[in-house]
Amino acid sequence: MGKGRVYLVGAGPGDPALITVRGLELLRQADVVVYDHLVDRRLLAECPRGAALIYAGKEVDHARASQAAINARLIRSAKAGKTVVRLKGGDPFVFGRGGEEALALARAKVSYEVVPGVTSAVAVPAYAGIPLTHRGVSSSVAILTGHEDPAKPGGALRWDRLATSCDTLVCLMGVATLPAIATQLLKHGRAPSTPCAVVHWGTTAAQRTVSGTLKSIAADARQAKIKPPAILIVGQVAALRKQLAWFERRPLSGKRVLVTRSADRAPALAARLDALGASVERLPAIELVTVKPNGAFRDAVQAIPETDWVFFTSPEGIGRFAQLLKPYRKDVRWLSGCHIGAIGPKTAEAIESAGLHVDFVPKRFSQEGVLADLPRRVLAGKRALILSAEASRDVLSDGLRRRGMAVCKVPVYRTVVPRPFKRQVAAIFSRPFDAVTVTSASCVEHLHAGLSAAGKRSLFRRLPFASIGPVTSAAVRARGGRVAVEASVSTIEGLVDAIAGAAR
Fold this sequence. Notes:
- By secondary structure, this protein is an alpha/beta fold.
- It folds into 4 domains: 5-118, Cobalt-precorrin-4 Transmethylase, domain 1, CATH 3.40.1010.10; 122-249, Tetrapyrrole methylase, C-terminal domain (Methyltransferase, Cobalt-precorrin-4 Transmethylase, Domain 2, 2-Layer Sandwich); 256-286 and 418-503, Rossmann fold (3-Layer(aba) Sandwich); 289-415, Rossmann fold (3-Layer(aba) Sandwich), CATH 3.40.50.10090.
- It is built from 20 helices and 22 strands.
- The strands form 5 sheets. Strands 3-2-6-1-7 form a 5-stranded parallel beta sheet, with helices on both faces.
- α6 (159-165) crosses α7, α14 packs parallel to α15 (395-402) and α17 (441-453) packs parallel to α19 (470-478).
- 43% of the residues are buried.
């Protein structure tokens, strides 16, 4: 058995994008991951499928595992030859007990490596628009723990020195002791008018900031119902937030948005919404499955040399078509003599990426748009092949036939309900959404069926749907739903723009 090793990895302050390259690299190689309460669960999705994921979180007034038990688990796993990642919020060596764990590993003669993380002490103020140092305002910073009760006799913190020795104070984990902290700072000479800020769930979509003065901040935070985790910043730099706040001013900050696209396509939409400040949840309502080739597909493939036009109605079509060609010892070059039509720019992009030139993209990205924009004079007597989803609409095929074309429509993939969908659908709607995105009629159909099966059919009518275009909107309304937002351009970018515009 190989020799194990422990990596003490800082996960960063909350936003999973702030983990280091080295930290992410190690997560993807880990056999065992022991993670903390404040670690974003999206980071755990980066772990190998067979990795053991062990929760070791310490929350206010509750600890799942003692520090001694955590140390023992790290040592035992490493000595069993495992690659172990101890994933800790922020930086392992900044109030993270990383030093204690490193000492335990060293005593047990276990090999280890420390991977620093972006500490919340620096990142959270930055996301709140508060620079810890600023020329002419602050040239010194102190980082302290708020876990220790300032009123406790014999405490480790010297409040008489901390109160005025540094321009900026950053107090971690100090919500419960905030009144006592303010009292100690005032008692030892900090001015009552000193600007302060408390930042809740910093760097995440749930971030909220309460500003005030040292005299008022405890009452301000209590009135705002600030709960852990939160960070207190004390100093003149906190006043700069009025000009520099950026994170909470994003157009979708505080908005909860559901993405229902298939799991492989959801990240692109989720990332755009996240960048605008939304708290994004994912519930894949569809899964795409390549159809089994049959006689109709074989005949269509053999007829391609005599085919004039080939139309793709979605970006998925070209990849699925390429898969289906393999048994015939052919690839997409088999289409090189045909004119290629794409229903929209994303479909065209996928086709071009496969090495084919796209001859036609309509102005409106729908089957109706194709019929409206395609020149009629070149169609009569021509042959067309439509590669689409199973059970897709027949608008394009019927329209081309009316214009004199011989049309063959062949499905290359079908949409199915993902296995986890039915058990997830009830739980995810336990809290309201500001927007529920739907990007196809199949998404709408599956979502409606899932809510009905979960006994929440009436909820469908109350959801604020954000639709990618008229066809999808029609599917929502046909089932009694309400379209709150519809994209003016039927693309993911258009959908995000519409949601952001409605939120302004």
